[in-house]
């Protein structure tokens, strides 16, 4: 792509969204971020703060976005592409408050799609999730595996995919939806009880706190490094690849939680004790994706293996811990 674009990244201060912003800015595009800083951090974007091609707008996708869209256009002109990450991302919170989840995850997306339709936005990326699959679907899951979400979060992500398909068929919208497996890497926040397992284990390993493995630890996940995910997103967003398709993004490598814990403790040189607790309610036993669609439609091949990704995340975490004040200070 030669022409610089004006790209809107909703949720661009968050864990995955901010990595997509990094790629888009490095490619020379103008980027506007909408974020309500509920789980994102301005510190994730501080490297671009002073760049004239970058603009941050405090906006909540669950509320009216008219003013935010107007300000974005005043800044860099017509929005040509939208990467939509902004969401309520915690599965357990979606169970506690399903109505709020619809506001962020369904209404928020439809607001963005309506804007895209009215303003002839060339392409929309949507962050979907492996949470749309049936927990009992045989592994590896492919895009045609049974979709039967076990949470309002999963239901709303699947609903989002239906909206994309509807807008594509009736309004000519062009989109790519990526169903992420377990994404990890720098900027993932270990602080809440529903944080991703890698961020929790690394945090405990470097602080010497005990690591808790639920169940026998032989359950598996497909862990994909965040910069690989950001590459897949931006490739789909900026090109015709993944045209109106829904694609799983993972590595195809199935890793047990026991192996993960051992690898992290060894990498960190940590003596954190390992405790076992009963299985967490609702946990699935195995999760891993096929790679066929990602390879065929996006030419996607993860570049960062688990060992390298964990090492890079560990290095980041140590830097964060030595930084003052902590990045958590910049959250709204
Ligand atoms: C996440 C969601 C889950 C949802 C799934 C759908 C949470 C807490 N979990 O789970 O509700 O169905 O996505 O894609 O939001 N683990 C430990 N010790 C820990 C933390 C986790 O052993 O301290 C284990 C878990 O039991 C699980 C694995 O690590 O087997 C991964 O956990 P997590 O990172 O929370 O992700 P998912 O299980 O994929």
The average pLDDT value, as a whole number, equals 95
Count of runs of 4 or more consecutive helical residues: 10
CATH homolog superfamily of the domain at 6-183 and 226-250 and 289-304: NAD(P)-binding Rossmann-like Domain
What ligands are attached or bound here? uridine-diphosphate-N-acetylglucosamine
Distance from first to last alpha carbon = 35 Å
Explain this structure.
The protein is an alpha/beta fold. The protein has a domain at 6-183 and 226-250 and 289-304: 3-Layer(aba) Sandwich (Rossmann fold), CATH 3.40.50. 39% of the residues lie in helices and 17% in strands. It has ten helices and 13 strands. The chain has helices spanning 15-26, 66-76, 91-96, 98-118, 152-171, 197-207, 226-238, 257-268, 292-298, 306-322; strands at residues 6-10, 30-35, 54-58, 81-84, 123-129, 175-180, 182-184, 211-214, 220-221, 223-225, 245-249, 255-256, 274-277. The protein has a seven-stranded parallel sheet, sandwiched between helices. Strands 7-10 form a two-stranded parallel ribbon. Helix 1 packs across helix 7 (226-238). The longest helix has 21 residues, at 98-118. It is globular. Residues 328-332 have low confidence and may be disordered. Uridine-diphosphate-N-acetylglucosamine binds next to helix 3, helix 6 and strand 8.
Topology:
Elements (H helix, E strand, L loop, with lengths): L5 E5 L4 H12 L3 E6 L18 E5 L7 H11 L4 E4 L6 H6 L1 H21 L4 E7 L22 H20 L3 E6 L1 E3 L12 H11 L3 E4 L5 E2 L1 E3 H13 L6 E5 L5 E2 H12 L5 E4 L14 H7 L7 H17 L10
Parallel strand pairs: 1-2, 1-4, 2-3, 4-5, 5-6, 6-11, 7-10, 8-13
Antiparallel strand pairs: 9-12
Helix pairs in contact: 1-7, 4-5, 6-8, 6-10, 8-10
Uridine-diphosphate-N-acetylglucosamine binds next to helix 3, helix 6 and strand 8.
């Amino acid at each position: 792509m030669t022409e610089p674009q004006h790209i809107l990244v909703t949720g661009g201060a968050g864990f995955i969204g901010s990595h997509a912003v990094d790629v888009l800015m490095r490619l020379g595009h103008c980027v506007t971020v909408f974020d309500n800083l509920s789980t994102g951090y301005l510190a994730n974007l501080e490297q671009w703060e002073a760049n004239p091609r970058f603009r941050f707008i405090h906006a909540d996708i669950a509320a009216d976005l008219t003013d935010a869209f107007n300000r974005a256009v005043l800044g860099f002109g017509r929005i040509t592409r939208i990467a939509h990450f902004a969401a309520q991302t915690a599965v357990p919170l979606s169970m506690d408050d399903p109505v709020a989840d619809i506001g962020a995850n369904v209404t928020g997306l439809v607001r963005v799609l309506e804007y895209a339709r009215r303003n002839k936005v060339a392409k929309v990326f949507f962050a979907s999730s492996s949470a749309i699959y049936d927990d009992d679907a045989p592994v590896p899951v492919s895009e045609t595996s049974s979709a039967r979400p076990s949470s309002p979060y999963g239901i709303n992500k699947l609903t989002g995919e239906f909206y994309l398909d509807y807008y594509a068929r009736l309004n000519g919208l062009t989109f790519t939806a990526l169903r992420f497996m377990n994404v990890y890497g720098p900027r993932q926040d270990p602080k809440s009880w529903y944080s991703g397992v890698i961020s929790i284990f690394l945090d405990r390993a470097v602080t010497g706190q005990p690591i808790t493995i639920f169940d026998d630890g032989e359950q598996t996940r497909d862990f994909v490094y965040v910069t690989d995910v950001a590459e897949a997103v931006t490739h789909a967003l900026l090109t015709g690849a993944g045209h109106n398709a829904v694609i799983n993004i993972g590595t195809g490598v199935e890793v047990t939680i026991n192996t993960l814990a051992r690898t992290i403790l060894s990498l960190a040189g940590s003596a954190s004790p390992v405790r076992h607790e009963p299985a967490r309610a609702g946990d699935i036993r195995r999760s891993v994706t096929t790679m066929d669609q990602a390879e065929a439609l996006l030419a996607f091949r993860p570049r960062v293996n688990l060992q390298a990704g964990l090492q890079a995340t560990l290095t980041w975490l140590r830097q964060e811990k030595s930084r003052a004040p902590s990045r958590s200070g910049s959250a709204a």
